[in-house]
Amino acid sequence: MNLALTWGGFPAIASAFPMKEQIGSIETDALAHIAAATTERGLDDARVAVLGKKGSLTLASAGIKDVPKEDKAAVGQLLNAARAAISAALDAKQAALREIADRAALAGIDPTLPARALPLGALHPLTQIRDQAIGILRRMGFVLADGPEIEDEFHCFDALNTPADHPARNEKDTFYFDSGKLLRTHTSSVQIRSMEGQAPPIRIIAPGSAYRRDEIDATHLSVFNQLEGLAVGSDVSLPDLKGTLEYFFRELFGTTTEVRFRPHFFPFTEPSFEIDVKLQIKGQAPRWIEVAGCGMVDPAVFDAINTSRKDRAYDPQTTTGFAFGMGLDRLAMIRWGIKDIRLLIENDVRFLRQFA
Ligand code: PHE
Q1: Least enclosed by CB within 10 Å: which of 23, 42, 44, 163?
Q2: Which residue has the higher pLDDT, 262 or 68?
Q3: Nearest-atom index, ligand 1, CA of 226
Q4: Domain coordinates of the chain in residue numbers?
Q5: How far is the CA of 3 from the centre of ligand 1 (A)?
């Protein structure tokens, strides 16, 4: 039955007024709770109690369906106004509480102070010496080359004219895999890979790791770092080799550094030399120190390359070249007077900080 009809001409007044009072008291109540809230949590509770799904204003709004048609608009406006007033009070209080919380969090802190500096990293001494060596050689026209650390015997030994019974191929000195592959014992394998992939002229350098089954001590690790070089062309001569490496070591250690070439033997170069530089390591008397191996590329290496390439791009009659290899760890130790190679891999900041 329709109540409005039953109540004749006055039902609107009769039902709208209690609703108006109800809305008024909900609003007063809500504003009081909001004013009393001292935490954001407490304020949230107040919000839910009034505007939540079962909140007082939400429930009261549901009553509008029972308000006579002609009063619905007025009551609706009252509800909206109350909701707006309560929401505004909630927002204002929320901002006020947040500001108080922020201020408390910053108590005793001066946010205008400059930030504490983060400790900057620095390049490892090995990286420094490697980059410097690369820089010098690049200025002389060498380009970077690379090759795998897991090598086969052909690239590490056979093509480098190293016979099967050579001690370097010994199981005792080399890490072999069951597959027959091995961890390269020197970066000279990159000489082979570069010549296989490229006809002369060629001028490459290859920094990288090499592996040997050495007893670990102050001057030996089972993994160390080398820098290989190779220059091949139609008129590359021994004076080119000497000039290049003398210049290199004088750039690295100082322009007055004495450099000497001492005859030696490597299977893949002929003639071969070891290079000594006369240096004064920190706290020691000046002396000759061995820093590299080098020589003119042995024609047997060119023969192996031609066989592998299936052409005559490296004709030993018309092709010459020089190669060199040096230990970067050793160069770093000499440069900085480092007495134990293990310091280079231990990553002890107390040690590394000295090179920053
Ligand atoms: N591969 C040699 C070594 O590891 C160094 C070397 C490189 C010598 C190139 C001559 C030419 O000892």
Answers
A1: 163
A2: 262
A3: 4
A4: 6-106, 125-355
A5: 108
Length in residues, the chain: 356
Q: How many CB atoms lie under 10 A from the CB of residue 38?
A: 10
Q: Which atom number of ligand 1 is nearest to the Cα of residue 230?
A: 9
Ligand 1 binding pocket, CB closer than 6 Å: 186, 188, 266, 269, 293-295, 323-325
Q: Phi and psi of 252, rounded to 5°?
A: -75, -40
Distance between CA 130 and CA 59 in Å, rounded? 78
Convert the pLDDT of each residue in 90-118 to its tens digit. Answer: 999 999 999 998 888 888 888 889 988 88
Give, as one character, the DSSP assignment of residue 138.
H
Identify the residue whose C-alpha is closest to ligand 1 atom 12.
293
CA separation, residue 254 to residues 249, 250, 274, 326, 355 (Å)? 8, 5, 20, 18, 19
Q: What is the tens place of the pLDDT at every residue in 10-58?
A: 444 445 567 888 898 999 999 999 999 999 899 999 999 999 999 999 9
Pairwise CA distance, residues 144 & 137, whole Å: 10
Q: What is the DSSP annotation of 327-345?
A: EHHHHHHHHHT---TTHHH
The 10s digit of each residue's pLDDT in 177-186 is 999 999 999 9
Average pLDDT over every residue of 265-285: 93
DSSP 8-state symbol, 195: H
Residue 5 has pLDDT above 50, yes or no: no
pTM of the model: 0.70
3-state secondary structure of 192: helix
Long-range contact set of residues 352-356: C-beta below 8 Å, sequence gap at least 24: 352/122, 352/124, 352/125, 353/122, 355/122, 355/123, 355/124, 355/125, 355/128, 356/120, 356/122
Asked if residue 338 has pLDDT above 90, the reply is yes
